[in-house]
Amino acid sequence: MRQAAATFAHERPSLRPLRAGPIGRHLVDVTMLYSPTSGGVRRYLLTKHDWLRRHTRVKHTILVPGAENSGLPYGVMHLASLALPMGDGYRVPVRMRAWRERLARLTPDLIEVGDPYHVAWQALEVAKRRNIPTVAFCHSDVITLAGSRFGAAGRRGASRYIARLYSGFDLVLAPSAVVARRLAAAGVGNVEIQPLGVDTATSTPSACDPGIRLALGIPVDARLLVFAGRMSVEKRVRDLMAAARTLGRPYHLLLVGGPSRRRIAPNITLLEYQQDPRQLARILASCDVFLHAGDQETFGLVVLEAMACGLPIVAARSGALEELVDVSVGETFCARDPQDLVMAVDRLYERDLAVLGRAARRRAESYSWDAAFTQLIGRYWRLMAASGSTLREVRRVG
Fold first, then answer.
1. Measured between alpha carbons, how far is 398 from 384 in angstroms, rounded to an integer?
2. pLDDT digits 0-9 by tens, 17-56
3. Helices (H) and strands (E) in the chain — how many of each?
4. Which of 221, 324, 348, 388 sits most deeply, having the most CB atoms within 10 A of its CB?
């Protein structure tokens, strides 16, 4: 399993029924990238939990930091952890022994880790004692983040750290080709591309509600732009706001993901975080164009959801967004350049939005959760099918 160079497997999975898979196996997901208002990682985990319940006979537990110890036997379990100041609801475990003991008591047959921080090291320790396989899912681009904040030295340090951490895992998953290439460049082996999916029955153009504009006091004839996600630095929300101010009327920007509803500027409205995917789809489908200025996306799940709702996209030419957005479904612009964003929006409105929206919907339909999870579970089975001695030998050679 451990290879000298990354292999980017992106084959189309077979959708055979999975009920015949290993019965009674226990899959455990652990991550710190989970909070009451988090986005893509949380949706991935909850969607996977529901899919496993409906399509397989395996147990699945999601172990994440929380305000107190709580949770169902096989569902989302919280371990009491410290809240991060100004951390958008995220928490950090500080009692590592308690975390390891809780994870070990779950008696997992495979552990997937969704972040590259200290929880990942604890998962590796538990897996080593139990001699079970481990999977790392690279949802967070630590290398790019370190480079943007600390320059070349930060990028080199993060690359060394990631290579050292991921060398302990039996499989490393990248949600996009750009992340896979970045991991390979850092020296990480055994990387496979595992794209995410979208629920096209929930995220659909038919979710449109014309009454939303009236309820928000937005003119019916406004050109309604929307972004949904965390209001964090890496999402470049300030660039979106600067572009909206430059565009002025008749454009109106809707930002979905704040703590409360309020009007930030005459043509900028902030909406609270939408926990219900159906309500988020209702808002997205009721807008005209989706904007995304983030330059550190590892996949761009919310972009895919907007496309499924039939929205053309204006996105930064950066990270995984370039793999989802091209001229056939929208426009792109130079990252961190609000003026270029303005020009991209102007170009988009010179085109046929309806045609672009239909193309966006078709592209989203090619990303299904069924295909994604069937491929993912096949990878799990492959790892769990290896005998204990095989895993030990692979790790020793690696």
1. 18
2. 444 445 579 999 999 988 776 778 999 999 999 999 999 9
3. 14, 17
4. 324
What gap in Å lies between CA 318 and CA 261, rounded to an integer? 30
Q: Are the CB atoms for 367 and 304 separated by under 8 Å? A: yes
Residues 6+ apart with CB under 8 A from 320: 175, 176, 177, 178, 179, 297, 298, 299, 300
Q: Which residues contact 54 (CB under 8 A, 6 or more apart)?
A: none
Can you name the residues that pair with 92 across neighbouring β-strands? Answer: 82
Q: Write the single-letter amino acid at 241.
A: M
Handedness of CA 130, 135, 140, 142 (dihedral sign): positive
Q: In one letter, which amino acid is 253?
A: L
| 139, 40 contact by CB (below 8 A) | yes
Give the Cα separation of 325 and 364 in Å (integer). Answer: 11
Which residues are CB-contacts of 372 (< 8 A; sequence separation ≥ 6)?
Answer: 194, 195, 196, 197
Measuring CA to CA, which residue among 141, 129, 120, 136 is closest to residue 170? Answer: 136
Q: In the numeric block, which tokens belong to residue 60?
A: 């699945």
Q: Is 266 helix (H, G, I), strand (E, B) or coil?
A: coil
Contact 171, 1 (CB under 8 A): yes
Give the tokens for residue 176: 């996009």
Give the closest residue to 29 by CA, choosing from 88, 89, 71, 84: 71
- In angstroms, the CA 312 to CA 90 distance is 32
Question: Which residue, among 66, 71, 67, 70, has the nearest Cα to 49 in the 3D structure?
Answer: 71
Structural domains of the chain sorted by starting position, each given as residue range(s) with its CATH number in brackets: 26-196+369-397 (3.40.50.2000), 205-365 (3.40.50.2000)
DSSP state of 207: G
pTM greater than 0.85: yes
What's the half-sphere exposure (Cβ side, CA atoms, 13 Å) at 54? 10
Token digits of residue 156: 């080199």
Q: What are phi and psi of 371, to 5 degrees?
A: -65, -45
pLDDT of 277-326, one tens digit each? 999 999 999 999 999 999 999 999 999 999 999 999 999 999 999 999 99
**Residue that the structure tokens 């950066």 belong to:** 318
Per the CB < 8 A criterion, the answer to whether 277 and 203 are in contact is: yes
Side-chain-side CA neighbours of 4 within 13 Å: the count stands at 0
Contact 43, 274 (CB under 8 A): no
Which tokens is 96 given?
Answer: 């590592």
